[in-house]
Amino acid sequence: MKHWSLKVKFGAYAASLVLIALGVAAVVMLPTFYFSQLRQVDRQLAADAEELFRDLENFRGAPVNPRKPLSARFIPVGLQDRLLVLKGPEGQLLYASPGMSADDLAGIHTGYANVSFEDKPYRIGIFDREPFFLKVGAPMGPARALQRSLLRGLALAMPITALLVFGGGFLLAKYAIRPVSALTASAERISINRLDEKLPMPVAQDEIARLTEVLNDAFQRLKQSYETATRFSADASHQLKTPIAVLRLGLEELRARETLPDGPKREVDMLLHQTRRLTNLINELLLLAQADAGRLVLEPEETDISPMIQAAIDDVETLTHDRGVTVETRVPRSLVVRVDQRRVRMALQVITENAVKYTPDGGRIRFDASIRNGLFRLDLANTGSPIREWDRDRIFERFHRGTDVGEEVQGHGLGLNIARTLLRAHQGDLQLIRSDADGTVFRLSIPIDGKETDPV
């Protein structure tokens, strides 16, 4: 239910409330109606008894002795289809309906009661007027049939009513949230490159208008913060490049001195290694800042990527030759794609270095390149520990490193984000296809007819 749209939820809630209301109404109404029928039958039984007593007292030719049996001609026509047991002052049977005896209805002595006679329901009334004692019963079959009809009507009406209410609620919600839908569509068009856009203000000055104002203010603050962060990242990267270059040059000159002892020379080598790492990090941050600012411009041209992939394969074999890593390849001789060579080479370098870092000794790395359905695709697989489930959704985030990645594994958590950014600038992508006990597979994909793109 959490995946239902608001319109469906609104319709479902409305239909549920109506069903509950109808159910409560049925629980209250049916017993009330049933007892109302009982009272009506009781009144009719009392009227029938009064008619019989009156006839016995006033009817011409009525028997004088109340202890003698009565003939059926003394019973009013309206009572002849009822259950009747009439007794005298000493309890002697004066009259019983056909098929009845003095013992029938013997367990009832006062008031009214529901009984079953010959497997049929009856309502019995007991009336005592000296010198007679009368039991009269009316069939309850029609009343119970009416109850069943009402239940069937409710059972049929409830789903139909719920369906109608659901449809009405759905349409009403659709109309009510139409401004929200328009707001959502407008918000989806706002991206990193279109932060100047604002949400259109609705005509009505209601809650939606207030929400639009709040969102526009939030987008404006986000735009200002984003521009500030982008400028800072770019400016800091530029400002750091010069002093690090000077530092690196000084270290290289110091390293070149023949008089430098071996101990200090090793320390200088370590410092040079760290300055190279710092230079790479600055270049990566500068690249991301350009992409964030929309200034990453591609220079695509028709390129055969096969030699580029082969160079990456050679690098992998060189880096792993003493670790017993098997390198498997399936790369066609020619793979012509329209790309920016420098940017794609950088993305390819990131994922191959990633595979080398996380493949254990004696493991396996496989390159599988092809062009299918107008799409260049390179699947790079490596054996090793699988990426944990909770890391897979964040693996392309900046500065995120896997839970199991130790400090001995170099990196800053930027490589995969940079590679994906460069590939998406080509209208392509970098995806994690799977990561399990059999290994991890990343897929690099680019349309082969890459078109000229705006700055990213």
Word description of this protein:
It is a single chain. With 456 residues, this protein is an alpha+beta fold. It has 3 domains: 6-149, Beta-Lactamase (2-Layer Sandwich), CATH 3.30.450; 207-292, Signal transduction histidine kinase, dimerisation/phosphotransfer (DHp) domain (Helix Hairpins, Orthogonal Bundle); 301-447, Histidine kinase-like ATPase, C-terminal domain (Heat Shock Protein 90). Helix content is 50%, strand content 18%. It contains 9 helices and 12 strands. The strands form 3 sheets. A 5-stranded antiparallel β-sheet has the order 2-1-5-4-3. It has a 5-stranded mixed β-sheet with strand order 7-9-10-12-11. The two termini are 38 Å apart.
How many individual helices?
Answer: 9
Shape: rod-shaped
Q: What is the average of the pLDDT values?
A: 81
Q: Which fold name is given in CATH as the topology of the largest domain?
A: Heat Shock Protein 90
Total E-strand runs: 12
Given as residue ranges, the uncertain stretches (5+ residues, pLDDT < 50) are 450-456
Instruction: Indicate the CATH architecture of the largest domain.
Output: 2-Layer Sandwich
Find the CATH superfamily of the largest domain. Answer: Histidine kinase-like ATPase, C-terminal domain
Structural class: alpha+beta
State Rg. Answer: 47 Å
| Beta content | 15-25%
